[in-house]
TrEMBL record:
Protein name: Alpha-catulin
Signal peptide: none
Keyword Cytoplasm included in the entry's annotation: yes
GO BP annotations, alphabetical order: cell adhesion; Rho protein signal transduction
Domain of life: Eukaryota
Subcellular location, record wording: Cytoplasm
Length: 722
């Protein structure tokens, strides 16, 4: 609104409509500032240490808002008596000054409010730490119950505060780190309860004490990491050194190599050689691993050798081209660039295959949890020798899973997924020894119900992490295959000279700011629908189901079209959007075909409704294709076509939100007695997804279960009565 006021054109003739519009904008700004300042003043009254600063900023903002309202009070300009009235037309610099003051003061209010939120989180963390110290020192069960009830309430408060903060974070990397820390706190809350109870019941048991100390230590680390993220600081002023993955190394290396097309002098050959050397050092994580197959190891070594040779050839041609820019040399340089990039792509594909195939094999092998079951049985029997044997097997399993996480991190494709891999590695590293100490405690006290319960809790944490790894592996594969990225954009974009011969003849057009504003509401509706469709596809047990995959593909494409309305994402021009709409319509037709095939397998009263909706989907997709392919000329006609494409895409997504739950319901009804329908996978789909998500991307962000914490607190009433 402020930009509209400042950028308005000074015309000699001003219609009543223009004057009224300017006055409305000025009043709207003033009202918005008034509401904003009211909240700021309320915050100031609750936080005395910042009250003065906040009050000054609020007064400045209110004054600026009122000035803008006065300068835009132009409705009475037609009357002679108002000639001396200062307005936006007679003093535009006054509006600019007021706007600057307003933006400056609003920023101050936001920064001060942010400081208060950070302080609240730190205060909440300090409360939790203080209560944890009390819990560590208690000697009676009754005292423990009372203090744990207080601790539970404090953890619920901390969960709410950090949950809001996580949602506000814009940096996907920080958001993923926050999610990981909060997930640790959630799981450790239950572990702390059972581990402490076991220690109280068996105070002389060394393994019980080790088990409890491990939980407290891990919770303190997680609390510290939350504060690091919130305050954007590191202990002792250290800089965070994030490990470099092979994927990110190859991506940066290729960008530098391809940059030689534009500029032959922007980096040195030593820089490129060093970058490749670092990438090849990281491939040693694969070639040195005992779990990498002989075939994968040989291929990686061969491609590493080839990459060195390709770089040598590239450097040779590059140096010649710097001295003499002939046509032949530039062609040779282009060939060398292409061959180097192709080799790096093959290396990337090979390490991805090595990591994901190992992960798939390990997860399949350990899905029965035989070692955990054996530890529970031998622990209850008090068989110390058998427990020792199975703890050795669990340690071996832990080493395998830790190695799997390290290799997956190299090929995860996005920073949030990298952080999730690191979190998974830490979880296996810590939980393995904790299960062992819990099993030893049970073996020493086989009749102890609390020791048995404690072992169950740690085993559940291990099983839950294995289940999460199945989801993580699927997302890593999705990113690699282009189904999802950090912002879940669909990667089927036209390239110059490909897909469509007519693309060259069409002039690419971008939406201007005004057009983006007009289409923003429609784009937002599309965004919300993608979240709904994602939610519905998650409810299907089998994520490899053809209907689910087409639905996910359509949701991904619709999301990229939403990003286009914001001027973001991979769809840069209107032609990109039209091409995406065509592919979206094709995918919708395929989904309708899959629904027809599915309907032949089911026998239910809702089957005719499913077929009717599928036919409706085909019709709507055809209409969208016709619109997307229609030829238009001129800016106005192009925008109308954009609007029509997004509107029809929204309508298809709305229908999809009705079709998917209907299909899922039919699937569940017919599943029990129908062998031809695919069974659900053995893991739980209990990960909360965000569309920021998607959450962001980060769409895998682990969420702190406030309700589960509240349940822990409620259960304490029962414990106290016992």
């Amino acid at each position: 609104q402020i930009t509209t006021l400042i950028n308005h054109k000074d015309k000699p003739k001003r219609s009543d409509k223009t004057l009224q519009a300017i006055q409305r904008v000025g009043q709207a700004v003033n009202l918005a500032v008034g509401r904003f300042v009211t909240v700021g003043e309320a915050i100031a009254n609750e936080n005395h240490e910042l009250k003065e600063e906040m009050s000054v900023a609020c007064i400045e903002a209110r004054r600026a808002g009122e000035t803008i309202a006065q300068l835009t009070d132009v409705a009475s300009l037609d009357h002679p008596e108002s000639d001396s009235h200062i307005t936006i037309f007679t003093d535009k610099t006054g509006v600019v000054k007021a706007a600057r003051l307003l933006l400056s003061s609003v920023t101050k209010v936001l920064v001060l409010a942010d400081r208060i939120v950070i302080k609240q989180i730190i205060t909440s963390r300090n409360k939790v730490l203080a209560t944890m110290e009390q819990l560590e020192k208690v000697s009676s069960f009754q005292e423990f119950v009372q203090i744990f009830s207080q601790f539970g309430n404090e953890m619920v408060e901390f969960a709410h505060l950090t949950g809001d903060r996580q949602n506000d974070l814009k940096d996907e990397k920080k958001k993923a780190r926050m999610a990981a820390s909060r997930a640790v706190l959630e799981k450790c809350t239950m572990m702390l309860l059972t581990a402490s109870k076991t220690c109280l019941r068996h105070p002389d048991c060394e393994s019980a004490r080790i088990n409890k100390d491990g939980v407290f230590h891990r919770m303190r680390l997680a609390l510290e990491q939350v504060i690091e993220i919130v305050t954007d600081s590191r202990p002792n002023g250290e800089n965070e050194m994030a490990p470099i993955s092979i994927y990110s190394g190859i991506k940066e290396f290729k960008n530098k190599v391809e940059g030689l097309r534009e500029n032959l002098y922007f980096l040195s050959k030593e820089n490129l050689s060093t970058m490749l050397e670092v990438i090849l050092e990281h491939t040693e994580d694969f070639t040195d691993s005992a779990y990498t197959s002989h075939e994968h190891r040989e291929h990686i070594l061969e491609l590493s050798k080839q990459a060195k040779m390709e770089l040598e050839q590239l450097v040779s041609v590059w140096m010649q081209a710097q001295n003499q820019k002939t046509k032949d040399l530039m062609e040779d340089l282009e060939v060398a660039i292409l061959k180097t990039c192709q080799c790096m792509n093959e290396l990337k594909r090979e390490v991805h295959s090595a990591a994901t195939s190992l992960a798939a094999d390990l997860l399949k092998y350990h899905t029965d949890h035989m070692v955990l079951k054996a530890l529970k049985i031998t622990g209850v029997e008090g068989n110390l020798e058998a427990v020792a044997e199975y703890t050795c097997k669990l340690s071996e399993q832990k080493e395998q899973l830790v190695e799997m996480c390290r290799l997956l991190r190299h090929v995860s494709g996005t920073e949030p997924l990298e952080i999730t891999c690191i979190h998974a590695e830490d979880t296996f590293q810590v939980t393995g020894p904790q299960i062992i100490s819990a099993a030893e405690t049970l073996a020493l006290h086989p009749s102890s119900k609390i020791a048995k319960e404690n072992l169950e809790v740690f085993c559940e944490a291990w099983e839950s992490q294995l289940s999460d790894m199945s989801l993580l592996l699927r997302e890593i594969n999705d990113v690699f295959e282009g189904r999802r990225g950090e912002k879940r954009v669909y990667l089927s974009l036209p390239r110059p000279g490909k897909h469509n011969a007519n693309l060259k003849a069409l002039k690419p057009v971008k939406l201007d700011t005004e057009e983006q504003a007009k289409i923003a509401k429609l784009g937002l509706e599309l965004h919300l629908l993608t979240s709904d469709v994602d939610s519905e596809t998650e409810k299907w047990g089998d994520q490899e189901n053809e209907i689910v995959q087409h639905g996910q593909g359509m949701s991904s494409m619709a999301y990229s079209m939403y990003l286009f309305t914001r001027g973001e994402g991979l769809l840069k021009t209107t032609q990109d959007l039209f091409h995406q709409a065509e592919i979206f319509a094709t995918e919708g037709t395929k989904l309708a075909s899959a629904l027809h095939t599915f309907s032949e397998q089911v026998h239910d009263d809702d089957k005719p409704l499913l077929l009717l909706e599928a036919e409706k989907l085909i019709s709507m997709c055809k209409q969208l294709q016709i619109t997307a392919k229609a030829s238009v000329q001129g800016k106005s006609a192009t925008f109308t076509k954009v609007d029509a494409c997004i509107l029809k895409t929204r309508n298809v997504m709305t229908l999809l939100c009705q079709l998917l739950p209907l299909g899922c319901r039919l699937l569940k009804k017919n599943k029990a007695g129908n062998g031809c329908l695919k069974p659900a996978p053995p893991w739980r789909e209990d990960r909360v997804r965000t569309a920021t998500n998607a959450h962001t991307p980060e769409r895998r962000a682990e969420t702190f279960g406030v309700k589960s914490l509240e349940n822990h607190v409620t259960n304490m009433t029962f414990l106290e009565s016992k």
